[in-house]
Input
Amino acid sequence: MRALLRARRRELLGLKGAGAVRLSVIIPTLDAAATLPACLDRLAGADELVVVDGGSKDGTSALAAARGARVIETARGRGGQLAAGAEAARGAWLLFLHADTLLGPEWLAAAQAHMDQRPGQAAFFSFRLDDAAWQARLIELGVGLRVGALALPYGDQGLLVSRRLYEAVGGFRSLPLMEDVDLVRRLGRRRIRQIDVAAVTSAERWRRDGWWRRSARNLSCLALYTLGASPERIARHYG
Output
């Protein structure tokens, strides 16, 4: 039944002329007015920008609309917001991105090359932090080791995936946390690769919480998830 509904949805979108939309960028937001404008400005060239807002109070939705994004209002929760954005988007390819992440200037050419040459694979970008501190370089190194060993990028590295593959693995689930790890694990190592373009993420969370404290908390969440803890329990731990 779900497959039939999706097929009908694609048919209806086709009738609306959606076939020309190749790449939709989907950005979940919650009080992201400080970082979203720069994120959206960097995405010039995408066929469609979809901002899924979870109840911002700082004018995020208005800022997104002013920059040409289509804004969807939904309940708070990144997993559900991402799923809603994918459902509403019209593109044959979907790029999921965080509002505090800036892709390198060459991102579009690299994404187009991937879409042309590797339609059966998803892709992510290289993790960078927007801070000159030596701690940031160590965290970037740690992320690189995790990705190399486990083929496990997080959502702040972006995720480029065809709609066909996204739907084949079941898409994002409405989880309170770990929604990115959940989807990447279902994709599997053979169906995901890294694009050598930087995804520069705000280091504000690390500066606020402490470089090592924040990283340790992230690692403990991943360990709990790997050991079988529920996303709800991990969300309580994450605080």
About this structure: Residues 59 and 142 are 35 Å apart (CA to CA). The two ends are 37 Å apart (CA to CA).
